[in-house]
């Protein structure tokens, strides 16, 4: 009986070794030594990704994909084709447990749309309807515009807004703050009786290029059409209005909303050798808006996540934990596919070591953004030192991402790629999001960072402490 007890005790201890550091954590110096032992593996990954046979592979794969499929709007036929394309590609790459997990996602189509200034002169406006917008009547809406620079100004001038088209000429501060005008512009305009809302695109730079995005309505508030116009047109209308000119616009939008569509999160793995039930998740989203090619947002993030598994497989490596690739669907509508994935898998939340998402471009990387405990940050700082050969070693804060937020709110550590996003919002959600903005060498470096970090975390003896 005593022998049986000892056997059970030893088994429980062995199983616990793969768990998070808890009551009796190892000395940090031991962890540092463990991480430093990965220096040769890290160099092999870097050499293969940046200088070896895999050089430019993620770029070339992405170019073939977006040139073949094009943009991939939630609910569209092209998104279905993209998912099937990736399913076959991951299978052909020799990855394990390649499968599709069904979800429901929104299905909206913009249809034909136009906006024309008819007073004080004739001028066609460059527009993109915002996702989820309602249509105008077939004949369109013709109305005088009211130009405002903020929600505060709109509500101060509420009596002037009745029956007009509100044009928002807000100042761009940063994306996170300024995007509220795209998201709530129609809602706030409807509250004061406006017929439609035209919002200056959420970007600091434009060559007469409107940007789309998601917008929202609310129960009890009339739904009015909403579209973004270019910076140039918004400022033109604002100048005319400030001089006292009456500006009249005819807006036509043929948008339609259909019942939610069937779609899939796309999954592939390298199964762990010692703790296969434990997961390091790398991800990007496969859907995009219906303009451009979705190469930057988020083709690059999706394809460096695929590349991480490919590089590890090519080197014959198998980490202790399972490295899982998830290509999300319905991200642009608010992380719809990711939310359903979380609900399906949250019963196993204790097995998730870290969740990683790349969704802010794959430009020149500067390091990793990370959210986790102080102890986990200390470990991640040591892991980043392994990237010294390419001089990308910084660890930043705020590792949040739309598709991993559900896990992070529940306490799982999260990480995002940190890269140079100086020009990201120039092309974001616009016709400019094409392969032309991608750089193969920068994608190689992003893939190297993504692979080294995910492999080392997956292969360490203990999970990251929470």
Features:
alpha/beta; eight-stranded mixed beta sheet
Give the topology, please.
Blueprint: H1 2-16, H2 28-36, H3 39-51, H4 57-69, H5 77-92, E1 96-109, E2 113-119, E3 123-125, E4 127-129, E5 141-148, H6 151-156, H7 158-161, E6 165-168, H8 175-178, H9 180-191, E7 196-200, E8 226-229, H10 231-242, E9 248-253, E10 256-270, E11 275-285, H11 295-314, E12 321-328, H12 336-345, E13 352-357, E14 365-371, H13 374-384, E15 394-396, H14 405-409, E16 414-419, H15 424-427, H16 440-459
Parallel strand pairs: 5-6, 6-7, 7-8, 11-12, 11-13, 13-16, 14-15
Antiparallel strand pairs: 1-10, 2-3, 2-9, 4-8, 5-9, 10-12, 14-16
Helix pairs in contact: 3-16, 4-11, 4-16, 11-16
Task: Give an account of the 3D structure.
The structure is a single chain. This protein has helices at 2-16, 28-36, 39-51, 57-69, 77-92, 151-156, 158-161, 175-178, 180-191, 231-242, 295-314, 336-345, 374-384, 405-409, 424-427, 440-459; strands at 96-109, 113-119, 123-125, 127-129, 141-148, 165-168, 196-200, 226-229, 248-253, 256-270, 275-285, 321-328, 352-357, 365-371, 394-396, 414-419. The strands form two sheets. The chain has an eight-stranded mixed β-sheet with strand order 1-10-12-11-13-16-14-15. Strands 3-2-9-5-6-7-8-4 form an eight-stranded mixed β-sheet, with helices on both faces. It starts with a helix and ends in a 7-residue tail after the last helix. The longest helix is centred in the middle third of the chain and has 20 residues, at 295-314. Helix 3 packs antiparallel against helix 16 (440-459), helix 4 crosses helix 11 (295-314) and helix 11 packs across helix 16 (440-459). The model is unreliable at 1-17 (pLDDT under 50). The chain has 16 helices and 16 strands. The protein is an alpha/beta fold.
């Amino acid at each position: 009986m005593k022998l049986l007890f000892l056997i059970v005790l030893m088994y429980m201890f062995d199983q616990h070794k793969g768990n998070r550091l808890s009551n009796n954590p190892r000395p940090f110096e031991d962890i540092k030594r463990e991480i430093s032992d990965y220096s040769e593996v890290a160099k092999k990954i870097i050499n293969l990704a940046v200088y070896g046979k895999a050089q430019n592979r993620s770029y070339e794969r992405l170019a073939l994909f977006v040139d073949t499929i094009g943009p991939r709007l939630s609910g569209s036929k092209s998104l279905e084709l993209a998912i099937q394309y990736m399913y076959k590609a991951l299978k052909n790459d020799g990855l394990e447990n390649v499968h599709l997990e069904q979800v429901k996602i929104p299905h909206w189509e913009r249809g034909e749309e136009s906006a024309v200034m008819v007073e004080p002169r004739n001028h066609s406006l460059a527009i993109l309807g915002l996702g989820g917008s309602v249509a105008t009547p077939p004949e369109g809406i013709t109305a005088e515009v009211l130009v405002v620079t903020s929600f505060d100004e709109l509500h101060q001038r509420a009596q002037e807004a009745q029956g007009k088209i509100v044009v928002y000429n807000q100042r761009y501060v940063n994306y996170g703050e300024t995007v509220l005008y795209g998201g709530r512009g129609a809602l706030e305009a409807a509250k004061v009786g406006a017929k439609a809302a035209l919002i200056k695109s959420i970007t600091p730079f434009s060559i007469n290029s409107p940007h789309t995005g998601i917008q929202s309505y609310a129960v009890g508030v009339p739904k009015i059409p909403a579209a973004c116009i270019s910076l140039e047109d918004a400022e033109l209308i604002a100048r005319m209005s400030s001089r006292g000119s009456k500006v009249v616009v005819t807006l036509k939008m043929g948008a339609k909303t259909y019942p939610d569509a069937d779609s899939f999160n796309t999954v592939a793995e390298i199964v762990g050798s010692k703790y296969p039930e434990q997961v390091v998740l790398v991800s990007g989203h496969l859907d995009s808006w219906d303009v451009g090619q979705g190469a930057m947002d988020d083709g690059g993030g999706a394809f460096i996540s695929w590349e991480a598994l490919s590089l590890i497989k090519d080197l014959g490596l198998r980490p202790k934990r399972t490295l899982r690739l998830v290509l999300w669907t319905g991200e642009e509508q608010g992380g719809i596919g990711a939310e359903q994935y979380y609900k399906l898998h949250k019963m196993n939340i204790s097995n998730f070591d870290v969740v990683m998402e790349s969704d802010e471009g794959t430009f020149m990387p500067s390091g990793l953004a990370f959210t986790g405990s102080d102890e986990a940050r200390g470990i991640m700082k040591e892991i980043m030192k392994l990237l010294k050969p390419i001089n990308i070693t910084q660890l930043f804060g705020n590792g949040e991402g739309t598709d991993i937020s559900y896990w992070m709110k529940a306490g799982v550590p999260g990480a995002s790629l940190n890269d140079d996003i100086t020009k990201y919002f120039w092309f974001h959600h616009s016709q400019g999001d094409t392969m032309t903005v991608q750089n193969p060498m920068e994608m190689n470096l992003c893939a190297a960072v993504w692979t080294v970090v995910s492999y080392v975390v997956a292969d360490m003896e203990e999970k990251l402490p929470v």
